Amino acid sequence: MHATIIQEFKKHIQLTVEEEALITASFRYKKVRRNQVLVQPPDIALYEHFVISGCLVEYYLDDNGTQHTLSFAPQGWWMTDLRSFLMKQESRYFVETVEDSELLIVTREQYDELLRKIPLLNNYFRILYQNAIIGQEERLLNVLSTKVDERYLRFLKKYPQLENRLPQYLIASYLGVTPEFFSRVKSKISR
After folding, report:
1. What is the torsional sign of CA 28, 70, 64, 178?
2. Secondary structure (3-state) at 66
3. Sheet holding 28-32, edge to edge
4. Do residues 70 and 121 touch, judged by C-beta distance below 8 A?
5. What is the pLDDT of residues 90-117, one digit of tens each?
6. Most buried of 24, 60, 74, 160 (most Cβ within 10 A)?
7. Distances 97 to 35, 56, 101 between C-alpha atoms, Å
8. What CATH number should be reported for the domain whose range is 2-132?
9. CB count, 10 Å around CB of 59?
10. At what angle do helices 148-158 and 120-145 cross, to 10 degrees?
């Protein structure tokens, strides 16, 4: 199971056998069922989660209890309330499993130790966080300036493996519309 995360790191950096062993020792395997909450406000996010299999969702609940889906993490992706994890502050976002999932998790202390002992991991996470920031900027711009059908097509491009795995209400929430409106948009596109 740790081979997946080692392969992920090796996409961007070279690792020695000793470094691979250190990574394997630092990440703990966790199997979780569908709809399990991993991070919940106002708790502090204790772990960064790497998805071996399954899918996670990050969302915000507004004062009316309306869910606003921010992102998904399918196999090979990372997810946590990053601000909470890195700053040790109360979380603002929920992280929940959409499907039964297998994860590798690391605490902040273990994460910091890995960055200290394997300096090249700083490069990996810099690339990861840069891509995340760019992705969030693009998503924000899309929500503010594009029609729903275009947002949906971009969702399909970004998450091609998720369309049939996610409940429709989650995709609608991600697109910023009601499930009923999303259903109409989806029907229009499929024609």
Report:
1. negative
2. coil
3. 28-32, 101-107, 47-53, 78-79
4. no
5. 999 999 999 999 999 999 999 999 999 9
6. 74
7. 5, 4, 7
8. 2.60.120.10
9. 18
10. 160
Longest CA pairwise span in the chain (Å): 55
3 with 9: CB under 8 angstroms? no
Inter-CA distances, 160 with 23, 62, 119, 127, Å: 29, 28, 33, 22
pLDDT of residue 73: 97
Q: Position of tokens 């200290």?
A: 116
What's the sign of the alpha-carbon dihedral 24, 27, 28, 29? negative
What does the domain layout of the chain look like in residue ranges? 2-132, 146-191
Q: Which long-range contacts (CB under 8 A, 24 or more apart) does 131-138 make?
A: 132/82, 135/71, 136/71
Q: What is the mean pLDDT of the chain?
A: 95
Mean pLDDT of 28-42: 98
Q: What is the pLDDT of residue 143?
A: 87
Give the chain's length: 191
> Scanning the structure block, which residue is given the tokens 């919940």?
40
Q: Burial-class residue 75 by CB neighbours within 10 Å (0-12, 13-18, 19+).
A: middle
- 154: its two tokens: 């971009």
End-to-end CA distance of the chain: 42
Q: Which pLDDT does position 125 carry in this prediction?
A: 96
Cα 91 from Cα 39, distance rounded (Å): 7
Assign 75 to helix, strand or coil: coil
